[in-house]
Structure formats: C-alpha cells, structure tokens
Amino acid sequence: MTFITFAIKSAWRKPIRTLLMIVCIATTFMIYGLTASFVNGSQSASGSSEDILGVMNAAGIGQPMPRAYVNRIEAEDGVAAVAYSSRMRGFVTTEQNTVTLSVSQPRQLMAVNGEDLGLTDELIATLERSRDNVLVGRALAQAKGWEVGQTINFTSFTPLSADGGRNLQLRIAGIFQGATAHTDTYFLLGQYDYVNALRARNKDTADVFMVKPDDGVKTGELAVRLDDLFSNSNTPTQTQSEKQFLEAFLRQYADVGLIVQLVVTASFVTLLMIVINTMVLAIRERYFEIGVLKTLGFPRKRIMALIMSETLFVFLVGGFIGLCLAFVAAKFGGATLGLVLSYDILLKSVAFIFGMALIAGVLPTLNAIRIPVVAAFRTR
Amino acid sequence: MSSKPYIQIEGVRKGYKIGGESLSIFSNLNLQIEKGEFVAIMGPSGSGKSTLLNMLAGIDHVDSGELRIGNQRLDQMGEGARATWRSGCMGIVFQFYNLLPMLNAAENVELPLMLKHLSVKDRRSRVDKVLTLVGLEGRQKQSPSLMSGGQQQRVGIARAIVGDPALLLCDEPTGDLDRKSADEILQILTYLNREMGKTIIMVTHDQQATEYAQRVLHLDKGTFNEELRKAS
Questions:
Q1: Cα distance from A25 to chain B (closest Cα, Å)?
Q2: Most confident of A235-249, A308-322, B55-69
Q3: A205-221 pLDDT, tens per residue?
Q4: Confidence of residue A378 (pLDDT cuts 50, 70, 90)
Q5: Contact B7, B56 (CB under 8 A)
Q6: What is the DSSP string of A312-342?
Q7: pTM of the predicted structure, to 2 decimals
Q8: Which residue of chain B is at minimal alpha-carbon distance from A13?
Q9: B78 touches chain A (CB under 8 A)
C-alpha cells in the first residue's frame, strides 16, 4: 500500500459524503470552465491580435470619426495598411436573434486582418460582386444555421436612412472561418459603401480604424504618434491594440469579465465553505483513528500530508470531472454558445484546484495535528 | 558489573487539571522492569493503569521525574521525538483492536512500515511473516469487519510487532474476547516474550491473564502496593 492509496482509501471512507463533495466541486469547476470559456470565446477578444492597432474616438467607443482620417493614418511612418469600419447592432427575424454587422472596404480589411479572419481573395471577390452581399463568420453561421446563398433581413437597432428605415436585405455570399478556433467569427461582414450610401446620419464616418504596423515597428510608440496626429482636431482619437479595443467594445454592453469574475468568486467561496465544513466534520469523526496513527508513530507532517492528500484527491477528481464537462460543452456546443476552452483556462483551473485544496485542507489538518493522542482516544 | 534496568521510572509525578482543579495521579512513582520480562499490571479503575501505559507509550508526558526506556529518556523528548521513538521501539495492542475499517488485514499491519524506508516487496514479506506468526496466513485481503474479535486482535498484535519493536504494550488485550480467544491471544504474547525476547507490559483486569506473566504488579491510588513474582 502506498501513501497515496492510503489517502484515497481514507477519503473514500464515507462514499456518499465524498461523492457529494466531488459533485459540488465538479459543478463549480464546470461553471468556471463554461463562464471562462464564454469570456474567452467567440464573444470575447481572445483571438484578437495585440499587433493590430485600433484607432477610435477618444470620446468613447462607437462615437464616429471622419473617414478622411484614413489618409493621414496611411501616410504616417510605420503604417503598413489601414482599414476603417463601422459596427451596427441589430437583429435578424426576431429581436432575440441579435447580430453585429461590421462594414468595411473589403480590400482594406483584407490587407489589415484578412489573415486573422481567414479571408481569401476568392471570398473578397465574391463579397464585392454585389453591394448587398455579406460574409458570415463561422460561429455565427453555425449558430444560426445560415448557408451561402441565403438572404437575411437585418434590422438595425438605430434608424439607418432618412425616412427612419432600419432594414437591410443582405445576401450571404460566403463564410469566413477565422484563423483559429479562438478568432471571433460571430458577426456579419458587409460593405461600407452600401451602408454609407443609405445613412442619414454619421455619413462618411467610421467607428474604428484598424492599423497594421510595418514589421519591427513598436505598436506602443506608433499608437502615441497616431493619437498626436489628431490631438488638436475636433475629434481626438485613442489608439490601442485590437484586443484592447474589442474588450472595451464589449464593455459597452456589459462588463462580461467582471460579471463572470463575480459569479466565479461567489461559487468558489461557497464551495470552499462547503468543503471546509465537510472536511472539518469528517476529520473530527476520525480523531480516534488519527490518535491510532499517532500512536503507531505517524509524525505531524505525515498526518498533515494524509489530510492534505485526501482534500487534494477530492478536488482533483471533482475538478477533473467539472472541466471534462466544460470541455464537452465547449467542443460540441462551442460554436452556438460562443465557448472556447483554452489551455490558459485549463492551467488556471489546475492552479485553482491545488490552491483551493490547500485552503480547504488547512483547518482540518490543524485540528488533526493539534489534538493530543490521549484526547483523540477520548472521542470514541 | 551492574546493568541498568530496561525500563526505569523514578520519582515520576503526573496529574491533570480538571475544571481548574488539580488531580494527582502519581506523586512519586517508581518502577523497574528488566529486558525480556512479561509484566502484568492490575488495579481498580482510576488507579492510573492507563495513564502509566500512555506515559510508557510516549503519548502522554510526565510532569516531573525520570522515565527511561532502553537508553532513551522519554521525559526529555518532545512530541516529534517521541513519535519517532514509538515508530521504531514500541508496539501497542489495544483492547478494542483499533483497526482502520477502510483497510484490509494486511494494510492495517503494514501501517507502521509506511514510516520506514522499505521496498514494497520487503514490506509485503514482513506483513506476511507476522500474519503467519499470529495464525492468519491467507487472510491478508480480509476486511477486519468480517473477522471475529480474536482474529481482529491477532491483526492488532501483528501490527504491533511488524516493526520488530523491543517493547510491547498491551492495553487489556483480552478485555473484549471470550475465554478461548483470550487464551489464544495470551499464548501468542507468551511466544513473543519467550521466543522472540519481547518485553511485554500488559494492563489487564483479567486474573487468569496474569497467569501468563512473569510479574504481576498491583497499582492502587498511584502506587504499586504489592508485587508478586511468579516462576517463569
């Protein structure tokens, strides 16, 4: 019998209680895995580049800037390519069916982050064939069940045309895949000129300029120079990486990260309270056995290692099950739910498992090592 | 040439505080036991038998005085040192066996060996050897809950001797057994004493059990009132 076998047998002494603890832990880590995957997934900025810069209005995200800025940005040293885009939120068919339409000049977009989005010359050519053509991201197409050739009716949440019209008839010309599974592909990609021609307000404006720096150019320095270009204009800018931009963009609607953090913290704290309480009771019931072990010569550090191993075992099994469930959900429902379970999340989860096992094991361990043998024998 | 006794208790004081009041168990306890002796200690409840056994086992400390076993001064050891000493020099047999229910017979016996640097093969070999010695060969995998009281106590004895300690402390080892099982356990203890040279100190209420011992000590009100020597 190894020490680990002994610890596992001790942990399994009351199977129902141990099983319930494992269920609690599995549930918590499944919640963590799913929520973290959600933040990391298609509705987050996980697949966004740190190298591509986003220039936006310093007054706030979504505030328009003159599209003419593109020429001055393009002329700046160290800029390889620029694209501008306007984003519109709306719905298709029913209001619950919310989607985002991002409109750009297709060739410019291709030059800046065509690689990240998985755009090909063929796709761009298809898109340009008709002004009401759109490309749909892989995740969105899977979630909605859309296919190439289908026509959808996009209704903007804000009026588009002078007569208050909000509807756009769009034809799905192709599906872009994204460079990796983490790339945000949960949106529609349309043509700027088509939408701009309809606009009654904010004509010839863009919400963001995406800048691809030349190789070897420090993005931080370039960002400062770009902001300096417009610092004395009516519309000063704030430049940051695409990743930061998308994160800030999402925060307009809700600080998903903060909400997730609060939910996860609450569930972890609750879990700790449950496991600590259960472990304290379980060890108290075994004081007599602890006394026997001490009598046989088990020193404090062995007793400590035993109880810590028991706690760790319960956390490892529960955590593993929870993460497996989250993995299955991300694998089979990831596209629909926007879940991406990354290695980062798995590594963090493992750290949480060990950390929480350590915290949960401290109190019962202290109780066990402190109790004198004679007092332990009186508990029978 | 005079040699020191194996166990020497000299001027030992021991008391407890209960509800703010001091209760003295021993005020000046003296005892000497030679190596290889089989000593039975009798006495009424509250006479201090268990306290004495706990002190000898190093699981309770003396307030003052000298408690020496072999070359070790237990009264001067800290808790960690006493634990180390217990794992190497002493085995203990309990009245209610105190086997761990989630482990089988062999695993219970193996527990003290987990503290020693032995290979799995050596540990298994030692466990098999002591289980055979106590008459439980072939029952390695059996759960203690499926064993009779006598068999459980044999496992308890095997656990106590598997580390090959020189001293065996027995706390009413036959107290929970019928006469036949009790005699079998006492025969095993006698064998360990006579054939393997173990020093055995046995606390008991069982008059017949004392027949197996070489010395019988009567403890009352914290002192040994009489000592009967029997022919070995």
A1: 24
A2: A308-322
A3: 999 999 999 988 888 88
A4: confident
A5: yes
A6: HHHHHHHHHHHHHHHHHHHHHHHHHHT----
A7: 0.71
A8: B102
A9: no
Is A299–B84 a contact, with Cβ atoms under 8 angstroms apart?
A: yes
Q: Do residue B59 and residue A373 have CB atoms under 8 angstroms apart?
A: yes
Contacts of A296 in chain B (CB under 8 A): 86-87, 92, 111-112, 115, 159
Chain A contact present for B16, CB below 8 A: no
Closest residue in A to B106 (Cα–Cα): A1
CB contact under 8 A, B92 and A3: no
Residue B93 identity: V
> Rg of chain B over CA atoms, in angstroms?
18
Contact A59, A78 (CB under 8 A): no
Quick: pLDDT tens for A149-203: 999 999 998 888 878 888 999 999 999 998 877 677 889 999 999 999 988 888 8
- Residue-wise pLDDT for B28-41, tens only, equals 888 899 999 999 99
* Mean pLDDT, chain A, integer: 88
Can you tell me the ipTM of this complex?
0.90
- Facing A296 at nearest CB: one of B80, B87, B102: B87
Residue type, B124: R
Instruction: For chain A, say whether B102 makes contact (Cβ under 8 Å).
Output: yes
- Cβ separation of A297 and B112 shorter than 8 Å? yes
- The DSSP code for B155 is H
Helix A256-285 vs helix A287-295: crossing angle, to nearest 10: 70
Question: Which of left, alpha, beta for A178 (phi over 0: left; psi -120 to 50: alpha)?
Answer: left
Do residue A302 and residue B115 have CB atoms under 8 angstroms apart? yes
CA distances from B192 to A199, B37, B106, B188, B195 (A): 102, 11, 20, 6, 6
The whole-angstrom distance between A369's CA and the closest CA on chain B is: 11
The dihedral over CA atoms of B200, B204, B209, B214, expressed in degrees to the nearest 10, equals: 40
Residue B200 near residue B190 (C-beta atoms within 8 A)? no
A-B interface: how many C-beta pairs under 8 angstroms? 65
Interchain proximity B111–A296, CB inside 8 Å? yes
Q: How far apart are CA B130 and CA A1, in angstroms?
A: 17
3-state helix, strand, coil in chain A (%, to 5): 55, 15, 30
Retrieve residue A271's tokens: 């879990």
User: Which of A9, A297, A380 minimises the CB distance to B83?
Assistant: A297
Task: For residue A305, give every residue at least 6 positions away whose Cβ sits within 8 Å of its Cβ, in sequence order, or none.
Answer: A3, A7
